[in-house]
Amino acid sequence: MTLPRDDSERIVITGLGLAAPNGDNLDEFRRALLTGRSGVVPYEIRYFGKTVAGVCGCDVTKWRSKREIRRGTRAGSLAVYCVGEALETSGLDWDSVDKDRVGVYIGLTEHGNVETENEIYEIKQYDYDCAYWSHHHNPRTVTNNPAGEVTLRFGITGPHYTIGAACAAGNASLIQGVQQLRLGEVDVALAGGVSESIHTFGIFAAFNAQNALARHEDPTKASRPFDANRNGIVVAEGGCVYVLERLSDAKRRGAKAYGEILGYGMNSDATDFVLPNAERQAQCMRKALNNAGLAPEDVDIVNTHATATSAGDSLEIKALRDVFAESRTTYVNNTKSFIGHAMGAAGALELAGNLPAFTDGVVHPTINVDDLDPECEIRNLVLNEPKEVGSVRVILNNSFGMVGINAVTIVGRYDE
């Protein structure tokens, strides 16, 4: 493992806030992952009807007023909640932080669909008279909205924008935060992702049209990556935002570090709108390993992106076999089996669920695998029950998105 010698180049996670379908904070989320508690429930949305989804229950009024919530968006409320929790856990003296030197980077799969569908639904009762269209529509639907709502709530005057990288957006935003800190553009980066996807009927209808929407008589078993009988994606909402700082600054204020960003990689498939490319995924993982100065056998946990689609899961496992063929100490798991696919939040949220392994030495499992698909077999795939491995020092986190965008982050245990 090769780390930069200068602490100003090393980037650590000093705060973390999340909203998951099975937990409103890291402790709750981790307990759910170790005890097999799913956050997928029955769900019904207008026009499409009954389905299942990962639904968050966090109290968004903790960090903003009901008036702000009404004026803003669900994605904005989730982003504000996650940032509030992240700042609280970071121990930063927020009143004394220079807000010009704080950057907000929020990953999204899509934004604006929910508000547009809502507005069209509302004006229907007025025979589609656009005079009744909400004057809040434009600020609600601009792509930078969730990051902007964070700056409004917390008085942040540094840069803010969203990263549109499909389902790789959570990882892509972490990468952006690291780069901005190393460039000296900011001193604190608030980076992660959010998803409000369950509030748009269009995403359910589209996955259904692709024959890629999960169904099961038991909602908690609907998300089943790697299982031979998997039948598609469970759509989920959620969010996770990290406080990132240079190690030199974190040391100066005596901050706790959840982990250190060791490396990252991004690339594009350039082959298909939807179908993943295993060769490009493997290339992205190798790029991240090279960036971190690591060999495959240095990685203790790989958190897979696998969404429970037939082609997607098997192609990712093919890529993993290629990269980790010689490693006998790398364990493989999946978080979507518990919560569904949180789209733009997926990479950041799934990484969070694995970070406590640095402390407890346990790899959380993939649940709902009753009959492992032979095409998804790989050494050290952790299924249905947690695996105690003693020591976890490095986690590799995969996120792959539509139109062929891949992002991989590698996080290491920080030992002072």
CATH architecture of the largest domain: 3-Layer(aba) Sandwich
Q: Largest sheet, if any?
A: 10 strands, mixed
Mean pLDDT, rounded to whole units? Answer: 97
Count of alpha and pi helical runs: 14
Beta content comes to 15-25%
- CATH class call of the largest domain: Alpha Beta
A few lines on this structure:
This protein is α/β, with parallel strands linked by helices and 416 residues long.
Describe the protein in words.
- With 416 residues, the chain is α/β, with parallel strands linked by helices.
- The chain folds into two domains: 11-252, Peroxisomal Thiolase, Chain A, domain 1; 261-412, Thiolase/Chalcone synthase (Peroxisomal Thiolase, Chain A, domain 1).
- The chain has 14 helices and 14 strands.
- It has a ten-stranded mixed β-sheet, with helices on both faces.
- Helix 7 crosses helix 13 (346-354) and helix 10 packs across helix 11 (310-324).
